[in-house]
Amino acid sequence: MNYKTLIGLEIHAELLTNTKIFCSCKNEFGADVNTNCCPVCLGLPGSLPVLNKKVLEYAIMAGLAFNCNIARHTKMDRKNYFYPDLTKAYQISQYDIPLCENGFIQIEKEDKTTKNIRIRRIHIEEDTGKSLHDTSGDTLLDYNRSGVPLIEIVTEPDMNSPEEAYKFLEKLKEVLLFTGVSDVKMEQGSLRCDVNINVVREDGLKSNIVELKNLNSFKAAVKAMEYEIKRHIDLLESGQNTVRETRRWDDSENRTISMRSKETVQDYRYFPEPDIVNINISDEFIENVKKSLPELPDQKRERFIKEYMIPEYDAKILTSSKELSSYFEDIVKLFNEPKVVSNWIMTELLRRVNDEGITLSDLKFEKEDFADLLSAISQGKINNNAGKKVFRAMFETGKKPNEIIEQMGLVQLQDENEIKQIIISVLENNKQSIEDYKNGKQRAFGFLVGQIMKASQGKANPQIVNSMLKEIIDNM
Question: Is residue 224 a contact partner of residue 259, using CB atoms and an 8 Å limit?
């Protein structure tokens, strides 16, 4: 029988505010353990939380970017549960009146058609601490993360394959990066993804929904979903069903493992947070946030194609991050050949950046230097191959391109008389190749060009070489 997969996602994204959600402790990753804590984020008796206005602003910005409706009146709630890293045995979150509702993200399917994945809600809440397990079997607790502001993004079960879920996650990550509300670094825990998954048989029989946790990358999420789809189908085919539970993904064994039974809403005993007043949001506040929204990836992509006349493939790569798209536009302002700039960024620049594991802000040379190099190639001062050598030296040393060109002796030979003498010398030593070319063997011409470039130590202008060589042979 045929089966349909239903996938819904719950994504937690840490917000890039300077301070935590309910106190003035620093919101930063990598600080010494338990140094960014206070009575509020430790949940000590008598401490009172105060909502960070910037959290509200960033969450609304995310909601607007994802086409959500923004609540004018909302509140905070207590979500009660016990966990070792949750000091006060409850989490301040939102329950029945989320800040943002009824949004969507549009993805492109494999057949190039589009599909809207509905976002049920986006709400704000505080993060918990972090459990650290040492080699002796003891568990230590670091509360630096406790109280870090989160948005939880909950989708409808609109994704019907792991591939669709992957595309949704990529799009979501891209938009969050462009808005600047989160750095979405999964390796640091600032983006976390849980999956709710089940299958429906064509006769209407459903497997029970299973929640998947411990997904530390999008690749792991896809593998876990693929595994679960097969497990659900196999159980239904054998006359059994899945248990409604939470399972974790084990990368080493490539399988999901049961963690615990799935909690229900009633288990959390939600009630309004008594220490925080209800939140009233004005139209003016929302409008100001809307005005601060940057150009989003899809809009930027369309503009790049139209304004810079570059292919869709180039535009997709160049708008994959806010930093990269800004870098491209800054270079084009200095050297107005968009396709040339695009080619160099996508090949030479990104290859070296990725190999070295650095960011564009780590580059040793200035944007003006990059533009000067491209100008030197465009003006014929050096050829393209020499340009790659210069770029490598710029990347490694940070020196100016013209300084490197002079030091390496790469200035392109433009003097036609000098080039003509080199051509004549090569032709005198390769008479058979001249005959081969005249007899229709085009490869012979390419061989002669190569010999001329070799004789000039790669400095001769290739365009002059080609036209002059053809003219000389045709007149022989």
Answer: no
Parse the chain into domains and list their residue ranges.
3-284, 294-408, 416-474
CATH class of this structure's domain 416-474: mainly alpha
Checking if the pLDDT of 274 tops 80, the result is: yes
Token duo for residue 457: 């130590």
* pLDDT one-digit tens code per residue, 198-236: 999 999 999 999 999 979 899 999 999 999 999 999 999
Q: Is the pLDDT of residue 436 over 80?
A: no
Query: What pLDDT, on the 0 to 100 scale, is given for residue 437?
Result: 72
Mean confidence (pLDDT) of the chain = 92
- Among 419, 415, 344, residue whose Cα is nearest residue 377: 344
Pairing of strands 210-215, 245-250: parallel
Tokens of 182: 């989160």
**Residues 360-389, mean pLDDT to the nearest whole number:** 92
pLDDT for residue 415:
67
pTM score above 0.70: yes
Residues 65 and 59: their CA atoms lie apart, in Å, by: 10
User: What digits encode the pLDDT tens for the residues 128-168?
Assistant: 999 888 888 888 999 999 999 999 999 999 999 999 999 99
Contact yes or no for 100/59 (Cβ under 8 A): yes
pLDDT in tens, 69-118: 999 999 999 999 888 888 899 999 999 999 999 999 999 988 889 999 99
Q: Between these two residues, 448 and 277, which has the higher pLDDT value?
A: 277
